[in-house]
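ABC transporter domain-containing protein, Oryza glumipatula. Tokens?
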Amino acid sequence: MAEAIEEYHGSRPIKRLCQEQEKDSNIRKESDGHSNISRAKMTIPVMELPITFHNLNYYIDTPPEMLKQGYPTKRLQLLNNITGALRPGVLSALMGVSGAGKTTLLDVLAGRKTGGYIEGDIRIGGYPKVQETFVRILGYCEQADIHSPQLTVEESVTYSAWLRLPSHVDKKTRYEFVAEVLETVELDQIKDVLVGTPQKNGLSMEQRKRLTIAVELVSNPSVILMDEPTTGLDTRSAAIVIRAVKNICKTGRTVVCTIHQPSTEIFEAFDELILMKNGGKIIYNGPIGERSSKKISGVSKVKSNCNPAAWMMDVTSTSMEVQHNMDFAILYDKSSQHRDIIELEEKLSIPIPNSEILSFSHRFPRDGWIQLKACLWKQNLTYWRSPEYNLRRIMLTVISALVYGVLFWKRAKILNDEQDLFNVFGAMYLGSTTIGSYNHQSIIPFSTTERIVMYREKFAGMYSSWSYSFAQAAIEIPYVFIQVVLYTLIIYPSIGYYWTTHKFIWFFYTTFCSSLSYIYVGLLLVSLTPNVQVATILASFFNTMQTLFSGFILPAPQIPKWWVWLYYLTPTSWTLNALLTSQYGNIKKEVRAFGETKSVSIFLNDYFGFHKDKLSLVAAVLIAFPFVLIILFSFSIEKFNFQKR
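Tokens:
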């Protein structure tokens, strides 16, 4: 193998592998100059736990396209007999070509895979991994930096600490720990900056990477897994991120990162390397050595002015295997390096004497009330700093109320025939459905943005679906209240409805419940669909069904019996019932309608099936709809996750 490698190394130009060496050297000096922050101990001690994995395999069902092309098996293997150990205080890198299985291995270790088949043994601190327990001591930094754009850096980290640190950590200690974490990842100077939206405003990509790390670090995890923390960053920004990662590793945590084509300075920041090839196989697992100087028998020495990571990828490429008729995975399996790893894995797979398997008495670090309180705190900040969402629907409501008020000016008491009746009834119907449509059309794109953040936070075990959903529902109430107050104060006197306390309160109550129902339908649709486009299409279908079965176009007595159940399941039908009955259910004025003379109250009963004696039932149903919808919303976010991994 030595001869083959040396021949290959000597026959290829090394200039392209070495272009960044001088720049990397300068950045290394700069990085060393900034690494004077003490990392001995933090306010909250960390539990040092190694991870071991033995003969780890991962399969997925072979895609139909591959089966049609003659692929021989029904399962596709993505990880192949992976064995290794990750230790506290040792910064490990997972490296390999695209498709080698780096992120797959990381996700399998983290327990984030939503499909496929896993075989093998994973142990934490010598004990078999229990996912519900492991997630409490795990920090997982995704490649995509997912944060709520309306929070500041400090608020994002504080929120994570509030929900992820155990209850015995008091408020003072929690805030001290947050400050330490911000200093560790060097975000303390910009802690009051809004996170913002990528490539639009707020934090730079490199700062967002460090915030991702901080949000996980503040949970005081024993293990931190990072998926390509330097992807998309220039060399200088990547060096800043890796410096923060090294600071974290020095606190005694087990840290592993996937990396792809790192610079020399980034590569040499790691202590150990797991190098993978296509097919999910390991071809090297061991120390990197100072300045990448670890000597391996059979491999030529990398030249001093070369990027060792790029050189390594070149000399272990598939083309090299074909050229020299060798399989580096087999060579590694027969090497002393592999035997050393097996010995280390076996040693760390044995629990420390007198130790106990890690367990927690509760599923979540904080109780349900604290979860709800924290979620409300975050939602309040998010809504208050989202004027484009709230002002838009409020302004549209005010404009619509003014238009309807002018269009139906003082028509509420002009009741002579069926045309007059349907004019005022139509004003009520159109007003309530228009506000509702504004609400769920606005909430769908807004809540979709937050949904991906919710997926990350739920996986981290920050809160239950019930706490999140009820906080989301509760934060809408004051904004809908303001919206309905403005609408009622404009529309009620403009159209000239009856000025009695009873009728006014009924009008406000009905419109408020209807508006909430539309909002919660929007939330439910977002939780049930994979993207905003599908949710919007379903919202349009919902509006159509609301119109057809509201009882206005076709009243309940005329709906076929096999469809009438949809009438009772439609919130708008109960809204129309409450609005018309509360306003006109006791009006004795006679009108000429469809060739007959009868009072308005009798017309409501004969034509729509509305009667004032049933108003209490209608009121109960109106308030029940929002509760039922939010329960369904909570259930759906608990059961459905459209992030497939």
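The first strand starts at residue 51 and ends at 61.
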